[in-house]
Every structure is written in structure tokens, then in C-alpha cells.
């Protein structure tokens, strides 16, 4: 950045407008007190085999970035991503590769693009060595003469780097960066490829969860995760001590013995629920949400584990303060006041699951949440 504070005669605006770039370069260096110690040409002899080979290698890296970026886009959209049980050997194999393929293709694209940029800087950018005395121009902004000379320096650097005549490098770099940029845009939009409102009354829509009964009168139990998807461990009220918390998932008798259904219930993102048993003294101080006064069963309250901020798991419960904590962005919810947010970026209370005890003594869900869980979306009314 030019200082513009050096003494000496300066050209008029008319003289400045008539100067060539070389003249502006010399003028800028003089005004800035720049002494160029060394400014060698990267390729003194033009068109050598070594120069062309270096250009092809750099273009190859950029092309590799484009191919890997395109592979990332294809895998993101068309690779089999839906869960397959291990018993389905072929389907499970391809499903298990979904995340690794995304990581490898995106990583190779970024790495290849970076290597291409580094090689270009090393092989074609002039290795200038200069010394400059600098000031802050006494707090004043850059004058017109300073802007003119710095633009001349930038243009000269571009010409000396020979980028203008490196069509292979320019096209391959543009292709690699373009495809990678397209992947960066496609990644957050990939969730919209499938229409979540195609079946608004089913448990697959954003308005419902896996706790929704599939037919009238179906019993949906609260089930704990023991680490073995085949094991069905239902929850009784006496299983929890006062002040305890446990994560539970939905279970239907129709799923018993069905490995895929049992495993899917534990993996589905909107299924986890925090079952909390308040201490008797704390239960007397509970403030219930309007319209949800009967959602609890005695001292037992069930709230979704999906944070209302951006959907992280609210997996922490502090017994002494009755606070539910989200470790991602530090949102805190008061379990004694219908899980209302009391700290952090979250603005809505956690959705409460209505629970009761079945005639067989196990805790069950009375019905699904009455509002969408997790973060907001355009069609959400709550």
C-alpha cells in the first residue's frame, strides 16, 4: 500500500493519465521508497518443454479437482443413502459406503484444487524480493496517484505470472473451482431433493415423528437403547430414581423380531426423547404449558432431544438446577417450565411428548407431538 507521504515533485493528473504501465511502476516504486532487490523471470526462455510440462501438471491437478467434485455431486444425489439392514448384504455394503464416498470425493477435490494453486504460485508467480519503507500516510486515505500505481503493480504481477496466456490452467482451474463451488451449494440443498410434504399426515413428514401411531389404537411404548437392537427393554415408572433422566425411543409390538424396524427406530433422527423424573419438591413447582397440562405422568416428563435452535441433541440434564442443556450452542431449557429456553440462541420450548402408563405397567406415548420438533422451517406455524 502506498504511503503517499514522500517528498518530491509529483506528476499532474494529465501527465499521470498519459503514463505507460512501466512508467507507473517506476513512479510507484519511487514514491513508495521501494527497492527491488531481485525480480527474476520464472521462465526466461519462453515455450520450453519444462514450462509446458509444468503447465500440463497444474492443469491436471485442476482437472482432477473437477472430476472429484463431479463425483461428489453424483454420490450426494444418487448414491444409495437409505438404511439397509446388515442381513441385506449387497444393499448394506453400498449404504455403508455413502459417507466415506462423500468424504473422499470432496476431500480429493479440495486437495487437488489447493495443490494446483500452490504449484502455480511456485512455478509461475515471480519470486520478487523487495524492500519498502512504509508509513500510515498520517491517517489520510490513498491518493489517486497511489491507486494508479498500485493497479499498475497488480497488472504487472499478473502479466509476469503469465496467467493471461495460460489457457489450459485458466480453464482447468475455472472448471475445478466451479464444480467444487457447485458441490458446496448442493450440499445444504440436498435435503430438499426428497419432498418432505409429499405425505403430510404420515410420520415421514416434518410435522410428525416416529412416535405417531400407524393406525388407531396402536400402542407405542417407551423403549431404552441397550446397545443391542434386537433387545426390547421397555420402561416402567419404577425404573427411574427421582431426579434421573433416560433417553427413550418408540417401540411397537408389530416390530418385535423385525431387525430392520428395531434398528431404524433407534437410528431415526426425530425419535430420541428425554424421559425425566423430577424430584417431588421440584414437581410441585412445575409450570405447565397451556394446552399440555396433562402431558406428564405424575413426576415423569418427556421432551424431544432435538434442540429447537438448529437440531442438535439436547443430551445433557443438570439435576440440581433442572436445566436441559444443548452442548452445540449452549442453549439451556428449564424442565420445570415446559422446557422453555432460558439461555442461549434457542427461542422455542422443546416439544413435549404426552405419556402415560399402560395397563401392563409400562410407560407409553399417548400420541405424537402436537407440534413439529426441532428448528423452524417456512411452513411451520408454531
Automatic annotation (TrEMBL):
It comes from the Bacteria. This is Cytochrome bc1 complex Rieske iron-sulfur subunit. It is found in: Cell membrane. GO terms for cellular component: plasma membrane. Pfam families: QcrA_N, Rieske. It is a multi-pass membrane protein. Its main location: membrane. It comes from Prauserella muralis. Keywords: 2Fe-2S, Cell membrane, Disulfide bond, Electron transport, Iron, Iron-sulfur, Membrane, Metal-binding, Oxidoreductase, Respiratory chain, Transmembrane, Transmembrane helix, Transport. The lineage of its organism: Bacteria, Bacillati, Actinomycetota, Actinomycetes, Pseudonocardiales. Signal peptide: none annotated. InterPro entries: QcrA_N, Rieske_2Fe-2S, Rieske_2Fe-2S_sf, Rieske_Fe-S_prot. Iron-sulfur subunit of the cytochrome bc1 complex, an essential component of the respiratory electron transport chain required for ATP synthesis. The bc1 complex catalyzes the oxidation of menaquinol and the reduction of cytochrome c in the respiratory chain. The bc1 complex operates through a Q-cycle mechanism that couples electron transfer to generation of the proton gradient that drives ATP synthesis. One of its GO terms (molecular function) is metal ion binding. Belongs to the Rieske iron-sulfur protein family.
Amino acid at each position: 500500500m502506498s504511503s503517499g507521504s514522500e517528498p518530491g515533485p509529483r506528476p499532474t493528473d494529465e501527465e499521470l493519465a498519459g503514463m505507460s504501465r512501466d512508467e507507473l511502476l517506476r513512479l510507484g516504486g519511487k514514491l513508495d521508497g521501494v527497492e527491488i532487490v531481485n525480480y527474476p523471470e520464472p521462465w526466461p526462455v519462453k515455450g520450453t518443454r519444462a514450462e509446458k510440462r509444468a503447465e500440463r501438471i497444474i492443469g491436471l491437478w485442476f482437472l482432477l479437482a473437477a472430476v472429484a467434485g463431479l463425483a461428489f455431486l453424483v454420490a450426494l444425489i444418487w448414491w444409495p443413502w437409505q438404511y439397509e439392514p446388515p442381513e441385506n448384504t449387497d444393499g448394506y455394503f453400498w449404504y455403508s459406503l455413502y459417507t466415506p464416498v462423500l468424504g473422499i470425493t470432496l476431500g480429493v477435490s479440495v486437495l487437488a484444487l489447493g495443490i494446483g494453486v500452490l504449484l502455480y504460485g511456485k512455478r509461475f508467480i515471480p519470486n520478487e524480493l523487495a524492500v519498502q519503507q512504509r508509513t500510515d500516510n498520517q491517517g489520510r486515505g490513498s491518493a489517486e496517484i497511489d491507486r494508479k500505481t498500485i493497479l499498475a503493480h497488480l497488472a504487472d504481477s499478473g502479466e509476469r505470472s503469465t496467467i493471461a496466456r495460460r489457457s489450459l490452467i485458466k480453464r482447468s482451474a475455472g472448471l475445478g473451482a466451479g464444480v467444487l463451488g457447485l458441490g458446496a451449494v448442493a450440499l445444504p440443498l440436498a435435503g430438499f431433493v426428497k419432498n418432505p410434504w409429499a405425505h403430510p399426515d404420515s410420520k415421514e413428514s416434518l410435522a410428525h415423528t416416529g412416535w405417531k401411531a400407524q393406525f388407531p389404537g396402536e400402542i407405542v411404548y417407551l423403549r431404552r437403547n441397550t446397545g443391542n437392537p434386537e433387545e426390547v427393554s421397555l420402561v416402567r415408572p419404577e425404573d427411574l430414581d427421582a431426579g434421573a433422566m433416560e433417553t427413550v425411543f418408540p417401540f411397537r409390538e408389530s416390530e418385535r423380531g423385525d431387525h430392520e424396524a428395531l434398528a431404524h427406530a433407534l437410528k431415526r433422527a426425530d425419535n430420541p426423547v428425554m424421559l425425566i423424573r423430577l424430584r417431588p419438591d421440584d414437581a410441585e413447582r412445575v409450570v405447565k404449558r397451556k394446552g399440555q397440562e396433562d402431558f406428564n405422568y405424575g413426576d415423569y416428563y418427556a421432551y424431544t432431544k432435538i434442540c429447537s435452535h438448529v437440531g442438535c441433541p439436547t443430551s445433557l440434564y443438570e439435576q440440581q438446577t433442572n436445566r436441559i442443556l444443548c452442548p452445540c450452542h449452549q442453549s439451556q431449557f428449564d424442565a420445570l417450565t415446559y422446557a422453555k429456553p432460558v439461555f442461549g440462541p434457542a427461542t422455542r420450548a422443546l416439544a413435549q411428548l404426552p405419556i402415560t402408563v399402560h395397563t401392563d405397567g409400562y410407560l407409553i406415548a399417548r400420541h405424537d407431538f402436537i407440534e413439529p420438533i426441532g428448528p423452524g422451517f417456512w411452513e411451520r406455524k408454531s
